[in-house]
Amino acid sequence: MVIDKQEQRMIKYLRREVLPTTFCQGCGCGTILNAYVKALDDLEIDPREVVSVTGIGCSSWIPSPNFHGDTLHTTHGRAIAFATGVKVMKPDMKVVVIAGDGDLIGIGGNHLMHAARRNIGVTVFLVNNFVYGMTGGQSSPTTPMGIPTASSPYKNIESPFNIAEVVSACGANYVARWTTYHVFSLVDSMKHAIQKKGFSFVEIISQCPMNYGRYVKRRTGVELLQYFKENSINVEKAKDMSEDELNGKFVVGELIERNRREFTEQLRVLNKKIIQKNLG
Amino acid sequence: MIKINEKLCKGCSICVYFCPVGVLKTSEKLNRKGYFLPTPVREDKCTKCRFCEQICPEFAIHITDE
To answer: What was the ipTM of the complex prediction?
Structure first.
């Protein structure tokens, strides 16, 4: 691989023929791709040892044409189901799922919950931009209450999912939440999540200027990032705050870390026992 | 040195607004696709924190050690 000195260092991990990316001007998906390849570069992981699994949606385009490694672009909402299969057959490989909120929570919510319950060694980066961006900005399970969207033009009257809390309650080993403004913390969290045994989950709050921003009168990526910057509260600070004070704020930080036993490890132990029993 | 890749930049100005010391400015220059590119105006103040390099969604800006 020849590195051109005039290029950004991380472009060596991308397929040059698809650049520039297909994302809109000011979209957060590119920032997440940037953080993802930086995390792999810092950990010195060979891209051939990583399988990136994606579903359907804008955020599923993060690794699928752009990242120069094995990618699996699957059906809508089933990214974790495919990733489970890859991890069971190839337990030594790093399996990373990158998909959006509509894909992983809306369509495939059950897969997410049960993967966390099983504690299978898959890393999930959930890109939360609050709407179904690719199809025009319909309301998703994470759309905040009182926000107008394409499918709820007066306002959204449903309560949103606090998905990081749901996944940690289901039993994931590592759960964190960051926004696309906190890039350095995001890279550190991604590195930790990739290395962590068991189910690790990072919710990344991202901006969608085209299909979310225009309904909330923040039409550019800069305005949305400024909003994230002003409304983020670290989890340590948020502990002392009441629920009313935290309304409309983003609690960022590492939410949970535990060490439950991993699924494929237990599966191999069981396999060994059965083979020994049948042979001896 | 701050280098901007004219082929990749989409002119979202995130690097301009979020640079902690205000090194960059949106220029009058258009690239081939019609986006206004950022340009370094106070390059001597750059502390090489590489925030712009990390937040850029298009891999279009980078800092060299020169």
So the answer is: 0.94
